[in-house]
Amino acid sequence: MGGRRIGVDVGGTFTDVTLSLDGKLVTAKVPSTEDQSEGVIAGIEKACAEAGIDPETVSEFSHAMTVSVNALLEEDGAKTALVTTEGFRDVLEIGRQDRPSLYDLSAEKPTPLVPRRRRFEVSERTTTDGIEQSVDEDEVRAIAAQLHEMDVESVAVSLLHAYAHPENETRVADILRDELDVPVSASHEVLAEFREYERTSTTVVDAYVRPAIDHYISHLTDRARELGVPQPRIMQANGGITDADTVRRNAVTTVLSGPAAGVVGAGSMAADDSDEHDGLVTFDMGGTSSDVSLVRDGEAERTTAGVINERPIKTPMVDVETVGAGGGSIAWVDAGGALRIGPRSAGANPGPACYGKGGTEPTVTDANLVLGYIGASTSLGGELSLDEDAAYDALADLADEAGLDGPREAARGVYRVANANMTRAIRSVTVERGYDPRKFGLAAFGGAGPMHAAAIADSLDIDRVVIPRASGVLSAYGLLAADEKRDAVRTYQRPLDAVDPQDVDTVYDELAEELLAEVSDREAATVRCSADLRYAGQSFELTVDIDRPFDTANARERFATAHETAYGYRADESVELVNCRVTTTVERSAPPVEYAAEGDPQKESREAVFGAEVRETPVYERARLPPRERIDGPAVIEGDESTIVVPPAWNVRVRDDGTLTAEVSET
After folding, report:
1. Where do the Acetophenone carboxylase-like C-terminal domain residues begin and end (predicted)?
2. Which phi and psi angles does 267 have, rounded to 5°?
């Protein structure tokens, strides 16, 4: 795993780059571009130039992007059709017959990604026991002719119970692939799991984003080849990387590509060395949004119940809670006179008012400038200077609208509201899931995360904040540290007391063999088995690790423990096995990173606002802080990619690897 490795993560505002070579870590930021590949190539060229190397000498290129999630959020994906079993044409609209907001009479469900006129039925019938009515191939060809006339760009196929018996669905997909020159996503290939609504929704999402992913990766691969860089390996939502061709076939796996890389990077670089903590809450605040997750026992928490833009996606993914509060999030006043933040963002262009690119609306970044946490001399991303007057003007307008006493008071309000939004997100991944946030450290990264971390930790009684060395580009670093991962699932629904352990082991063996046939290094791959279990009568499951050979008593006890953690009790009820899951992993070692510091770390001092006080605050250059140095707050520590704010009651210590640990000072 030596050589020159580069990782590039595309965000809403900046594209982040990390380059590892000879024990050094070179980082770079460039503005994100409408065609994301342009920013990616510009970032690679910038990092290689700073390192003094030719891009052709890069041995590995890992990448995380926002193409698929942007297509979902902006609803500008492919013109998609759905082929399903007769009688199930409207499953996308019926869903679970629940309301987005129970007591909101005006609440509306999202518009289906496939309108009714592009949803087609086939006369077939499959049950959990087998095929009762085979597919009429002429009927499928007639549907293909209609799809051709409609100029569809992709097709999703989701037949009833295809997860158990995929023969009919396989035949439909094969005919459509022969007749049409568009990608076809089949549900048993995307998600071999029961529940027709979630399986259909996930398959439709895969089809909806697949043309965009295929076009983007092809375009990026061509650009990389021209630059002399290897074909990119792509970060998946499950926290692992895979080859580009696999992603083209399974586009839905990229929906949380960037946030997953950040969590992996936090687990690798920001590991909490304290025995007093159960793990880390990861807090990634970028230009557009903030992402929160958990790392326990060195591994990112995962889920199979993801929702993007109110649409369920059941593929395994890092369990990330996202709120629309980033550095570029716009502050505004609602009809009731309350100050609000986001979800609308100034993005990269024009960006916050202080960027001097024509933006006039107040953002979180403008508030941080007015509060003194960043200064006019601060260079965001190593190259973007700031317009202090423009920030004050934007906050002055907000103060007038909100009835506040001037720009600083408005900035304090923006800072507090943004922190409150992010605090709620942290509670949702800790308290609401049975974890005490006080028993975790907080790993802060992203361009804006370390500016807000200590204040957020204070509100949650978290006593330690870890700021990794590459905190401003940690998602890009996570790409260098991520393992290769592949997942498979199969529904195997039985009462736990009635299953034959040998039959369950056979299912696990078959799933493992499917994945091992695709990994890059079969001999190096490890296999991890898990199961979705529930009490009889429950609607949803909990996933627990399973030992081999399968043992029912051990599985029951692990489920009871997980249920007690999540819901506060264990029941004396029968337990059901629902799904068998397998994950294969080929481990990759994180690149070694050396740290050395030279020169006087203090750059200047400036006024900064803490609470109701204005304090003269020293400003330090992070790259010059020597190992084991302690700095007492108030202080501001600036780096090329991010800025750390140390409140008066906190102190910061420098680890040997350059990671900063902030703690509440002893009184």
Report:
1. 506-654
2. -65, -30
Residue 233, beta-bridge partner list: 62, 243
3-state secondary structure 377-424: CCCECCCECCCHHHHHHHHHHHHHHHCCCHHHHHHHHHHHHHHHHHHH
Q: What pLDDT digit, counting tens, does each position of 227-249 carry?
A: 999 999 999 999 999 999 999 99
Q: Does the pLDDT at position 348 exceed 80?
A: no
- Spatial separation of the C-alpha atoms in residues 592 and 47, rounded to whole Å: 18
CA distances from 517 to 237, 510, 523, 618 (A): 21, 11, 11, 57
Q: Which of 119, 127, 207 is nearest to 162 (CA)?
A: 127
Tokens of 73: 């959020």
Give the strand pairing for 311-313 and 60-64: unpaired
Q: For 367-382, what is each residue's pLDDT tens digit? A: 999 999 998 777 665 4
Q: How many helices (H) and strands (E) does the chain have?
A: 16, 35
Where does the chain hold its CATH 3.30.1490 domain(s)? 483-584
Answer whether residue 102 shows pLDDT above 80.
Answer: no
Number of CB atoms found within 10 A of residue 79's CB: 15
**Angular region, 381: left φ>0, alpha ψ -120 to 50, beta rest:** left
pLDDT the model gives residue 247: 93
Residues in the chain: 667
Out of 3.90.320, 1.10.12, 3.30.420, 3.40.50, the CATH code matching 78-197 is: 3.40.50
Asked if CATH classification 1.20.1050 holds for the domain at 483-584, the reply, yes or no, is: no
Total Cβ atoms within 10 A of residue 429:
20
CATH 3.40.50 domain extents, the chain: 78-197
Residue 162, classified by CB atoms within 10 Å of its CB into exposed (0-12), middle (13-18) or buried (19+), is: buried
Q: Does residue 183 carry a pLDDT above 60?
A: yes
The conformational region for residue 97 under phi > 0 = left, psi -120 to 50 = alpha, else beta, is left
Reduced to 3 states (helix: H, G, I; strand: E, B; else coil), residue 128 is: coil
Task: List, in sequence order, every residue forming a beta bridge with 317; answer none if it has no partner.
Answer: 303
CB atoms within 10 A of CB 269: 25
The percent of residues in the chain predicted with pLDDT above 70, rounded, is 97
* Dist. CA 638–CA 624, nearest whole Å: 10
- The per-residue pLDDT for range 39-73, each reduced to its tens digit, is 999 999 999 999 999 999 999 999 999 889 888 87
Question: Is residue 383 very low, low, confident or very high in pLDDT (cuts 50, 70, 90)?
Answer: low
Sheet with strand 613-621: strands edge to edge: 602-610, 613-621, 635-638, 643-646
Whole-number Cα distances in Å, 550 to 277, 507, 572: 32, 11, 22
508 sits in which H/E element: helix 501-516
Q: Helix or strand or coil: residue 433?
A: helix
Handedness of CA 211, 212, 216, 219 (dihedral sign): positive
Q: How far apart are CA 392 and CA 512, in angstroms?
A: 59
Amino acid at 329: S
Residue 465 vs residues 78, 271, 662: alpha-carbon distances, Å: 42, 11, 5
What angle, 0 to 180 degrees and rounded to 10, lies between the N-to-C axes of helices 167-179 and 137-149? 40
Which residue has 């709120």 as its token pair? 323
Closest CA to 385 of 355, 341, 427: 355
In 111-223, beta strands by DSSP E: 119-122, 125-127, 130-133, 154-158, 184-186
pLDDT tens, 296-341?
877 888 888 888 878 889 999 998 888 878 888 999 999 889 999 9
CB-count exposure of residue 210 (10 Å: 0-12, 13-18, 19+): buried
Residue 1 pLDDT class (50, 70, 90 cuts): very low
